[in-house]
Known about the structure:
Elements: H1 13-18, H2 41-47, H3 51-54, E1 56-68, E2 73-84, E3 88-94, E4 100-107, E5 114-116, E6 118-122, E7 125-134, E8 138-147, E9 160-165, E10 171-176, E11 200-207, E12 211-213, E13 217-224, E14 227-234, E15 246-248, E16 250-259, E17 262-271, H4 275-281, H5 284-296, E18 306-310, E19 315-316, E20 322-324, H6 348-355, E21 363-365, H7 372-390, H8 392-401, H9 428-441, H10 444-457, E22 461-463, H11 465-476, H12 481-489, E23 495-501, E24 504-510, E25 520-523, E26 528-531, E27 538-541, E28 551-552, E29 559-562
Parallel strand pairs: 1-11, 17-18, 18-20, 21-22, 23-29
Antiparallel strand pairs: 1-2, 2-8, 3-7, 4-5, 4-8, 6-7, 9-10, 11-14, 12-15, 13-14, 16-17, 19-20, 23-24, 24-27, 25-26, 25-28
Helix pairs in contact: 5-6, 5-7, 5-10, 6-7, 7-8, 7-9, 9-12, 10-11
Amino acid sequence: xxxxxxxxxxxxxxxxxxxxxxxxxxxxxxxxxxxxxxxxxxxxxxxxxxxxxxxxxxxxxxxxxxxxxxxxxxxxxxxxxxxxxxxxxxxxxxxxxxxxxxxxxxxxxxxxxxxxxxxxxxxxxxxxxxxxxxxxxxxxxxxxxxxxxxxxxxxxxxxxxxxxxxxxxxxxxxxxxxxxxxxxxxxxxxxxxxxxxxxxxxxxxxxxxxxxxxxxxxxxxxxxxxxxxxxxxxxxxxxxxxxxxxxxxxxxxxxxxxxxxxxxxxxxxxxxxxxxxxxxxxxxxxxxxxxxxxxxxxxxxxxxxxxxxxxxxxxxxxxxxxxxxxxxxxxxxxxxxxxxxxxxxxxxxxxxxxxxxxxxxxxxxxxxxxxxxxxxxxxxxxxxxxxxxxxxxxxxxxxxxxxxxxxxxxxxxxxxxxxxxxxxxxxxxxxxxxxxxxxxxxxxxxxxxxxxxxxxxxxxxxxxxxxxxxxxxxxxxxxxxxxxxxxxxxxxxxxxxxxxxxxxxxxxxxxxxxxxxxxxxxxxxxxxxxxxxxxxxxxxxxxxxxxxxxxxxxxxxxxxxxxxxxxxx
Length: 569
């Protein structure tokens, strides 16, 4: 989760007054957007699947890290298991400046021998050479690393390792790296399209006075002198930026949620002094799970469980270990992003970040340019949760209220292949586009089945925007291609121009893409009617309820303008 100039949601200016007078941002949680028009070799190396990435596929990460809190340094290794897709000899790894690789060990497919590999650095990319071209089905390399990783000064708006203290002065550490990338702290194939098919493990070596929490389930906990060694594991595919250590004075409580796929373990790790607050606030979790399983389908990671982990930053959607730092308040740090009052009825971080378990973690965009798939659907999950708990009118009011945070500065979809996101409008403009599509479908059960179908069709997969567009259009039985073009690929909000003479309406779409023919619902005195404008003037007949004027359905993200009849032709 971030916000504009970061990677997740829209934040009202009053919140930024609290956060060191930061400039207004329409994205809640992310590193700064890359809006530059020219791109470097480093941008291409990071954002594309070049020849040194294309020939191998990651199967699993096994990571070990030992942080030094006083020096703000880390050391460890990243073991990468991979399959060979086609013969290859040189592979690209990613580890960002100023981190260093110490050595790389190759283990052949039978684990029978090991050899050191040669490598060279090119900025944040490292090119590793095998002695001979690999043609076997699989291989393993272990990459030893150390260094002082980039420190996140204002997480999660900027990325890196987080070195903080709790209110009692104890060390409290974690990482936030969405957008910036996991290679800010460990060596990996840092591209969103390649998730480890067989999951990952994270081993953390910490002082025995601290507790280390990771994604998935705790596999082992041992002591070595004054050190404690914790190993956590996920068995499902997981994106690189979601593999996160949480290290602090944690205590645990939990519950079992009876969900669509059976019993789901829900575990909560919080600072000891906040235990009672957490027990009260986290009662929202079962309600959230009930709502999202209804709308989106079963929680996608039953095998790994569901966790909220108190974090030294506001929040992030770390798979099966959601970062929580909303100060045990409803709303967004006690504020309502919609300005309607509806957003104060629930905890923003619990709802939004958990919504990402379906959109971002279950369904992941191949390219960061398509991050609207994560953020648009998840921002809309806030509306759907509000609808589940407080009714359709409340949900509608909420999503309409969020329009105040849109900039329409640049298109929602970014540039492909160079690690560039689009506008922070991907959050609430994306949500309002989906709300508009929901109105056109005009059948909430069909709309719900489409959302559930997306999570089934693309279960644990990475996708492109075109995959999502095609699925929605096919299942809805309506061609939404022009709607997607309008809202995702331009900054233009369609305007319905019209004039009425007695019961005859003349109308058209303006400020729209070529061929835009989205239906729109108009409202008269106690009556509604659908019309299908195009960019060309056309006429139609209205009932007497519309003689005194019309408005467009406020649930549809459009504007309208009455024009003089003389200007029509």
